Known about the structure:
The complex is a heterodimer of chains A (154) and B (510). Chain A has 154 residues and is mainly alpha-helical. Chain A contains 5 helices and no strands. The two termini of chain A are 43 Å apart.
Amino acid sequence: xxxxxxxxxxxxxxxxxxxxxGGTVALAxxxxxxxxxxxxxxYFPTVLGALLAVIGLVxxxxxxxxxxxxxxxxxxxxxxxxxxxxxxxFAVLLQPLGLVVTAVVVVVLAAWAGHEFxxxxxxxxGLMLALISYALFVWGLNQxxxxxxxxxxx
Amino acid sequence: xxxxxxxxxxxxxxxxxxxxxVSVQNLFYCFxxxxxxxxxxxxxxxxxxxxxAMLLPITYALPPTAALIMLAGIYYxxxxxxxxxxxxxxxxxxASSVVTCLxxxxxxxxxxxxxxxxxxxxxSFIAGTVATxxxxxxxxxxxxxxTRFGPAEYFxxxxxxxxxxxxxANRSVLKAIGMVLVxxxxxxxxxxxxxxxxRFTFGVTELLDGIGFIGLAVGVFAVxxxxxNLEKKDTREVFTxxxxxxxxxxxxxxxxxxxxARGTLVGSVLGVLPAGGALLASFASYAVEKRLAKDPSRxxxxxxxxxxxxxxxxxAGAQTSFIPMLTLxxxxxxxMALMIGAMMLHNIQPGPQVMTKNPELFWGLIASxxxxxxxxxxxxxxxxxxxxxxxxxxxxxxxxxxILFCCIGVYTLSNNTFDVRLVVLFGAVGYLFAKIGxxxxxxLLGFILGPMxxxxxxxxxxxxxxxxxxxxERPISAGLLAAALALxxxxxxxxxxxxxxxxxxxxxxx
Lengths: 154, 510
């Protein structure tokens, strides 16, 4: 599931900078601009966004003329998504399921992202880390967070 | 007479600092910081920035002074842990230990890992001691100068700081400046303090206070780094059972003495400059030692000077880079940007007023630098066995734990999962930026400085009724801007461009 983009890094950087800079300028126009003496909330973002867009344009032009920028190598979308899934699982599951269950799920999902995944090992390390984080954060540092799933806690 | 006054004031300040730092509570947090920093920093593939980003939330519950003391401890610990990894595994945790790999790893292969580790610790301690004194000496006069700065000077100083920080350490100056701008813009998200307008919040209530900088830092440093590490298959050769005897021989001590002294000097000077702190320092010191050596061909084959000099230099540089951060509120590198972020979390506005408003924090932190370094030596030499064993824990077990602790840490900061969602977003953004060759460090610097820069820019122009000449008509401001411009221009000179390419290429090899 790897995406191959045959384009130079500079080209993409130029596009990203122009889009981000341009977007900033465009969005900022929804606020009062003011003047240099009495700047409105749009003033500084407009200046920054315009500068960024100009730099993006220069990068874009440069990427057509010189090749010293290097090329984008394999983007492992699948790997990235799996790692992010582990983090997202924490955000979604913590409130309903509590720390202990969430920790196990996060660790197993994270381990699954790597290329040497073993379910048994991941489960054991997940359980151990759940206990450690419970001891450390809830007991040791006195942080308040849901510990058990809502149906157990209630 | 003036000199005497200065010295006695310094003595008083250091005494206050020591009194603060030596309290049982602060000593404890300094110890915990150094210990945790080394523990995590030793793990391969995790540099000081990721370590600090990960542990920062833990310090949030502490009083500000204790929190900063602990963070500083984490920083030295992580840096020292990184050197251990560089020597034993040939995997630098961050760019500034790349140099340590060159000769340190060769020493380890020859069965001299023990002396390499010991000399790194001793060199770092000596350098740290000298650099602490330099911090104490320079801080007061610099802060005094800074209090006379108006908004125009501050704005120009920030421009210089940002340009200086990005120009030297990055492959492409243009990209780095672009990333600074991206960071500056991200820093503006939230309610504008002057007009009350909600900028770029897209109706999300959680964004009213701005993007949480921990979420950003953990995303682009910790998560991105993990994905990048998982991409490469790791083929490391660990010299865990060959550490051997620790103490360097008399000869090795003799060979290291001068490199340590020179490294300390080089590092202290380079650390203060708005550029690279530890990174530039260790490269420069290695170059100096190689040039001065009777037989330069020994370098790269296990010359102890090649470990002693750069290790002293990077610690000195790490230490003195606190000076601009503490006195001017300007971070010379990402670690200091994180420190500033931590101060702001505790409602301490960084800048020259910190010294007068929070003297126990200021001098306590400086005194704790020395104590932290002392602890490093005391802690690390006997504990080296533990660190070495940690190195043999496979990465497939480590990174899920890192992800979990990052999530919990970020969550506990606000007891809200919104910041964890930001980690998801910025993890993806950081990875894609890395793929197009854009480094996240300049972005974070810009992000931290964004709101302050806007404020100074606005104030400078209000005073002069919108006349942009204020930035070039005030002599100090003009000088600072001229220096920034000179830096930019000099980077395009052929000789310097070549030198930069070499430095960056060395970094890239790691």
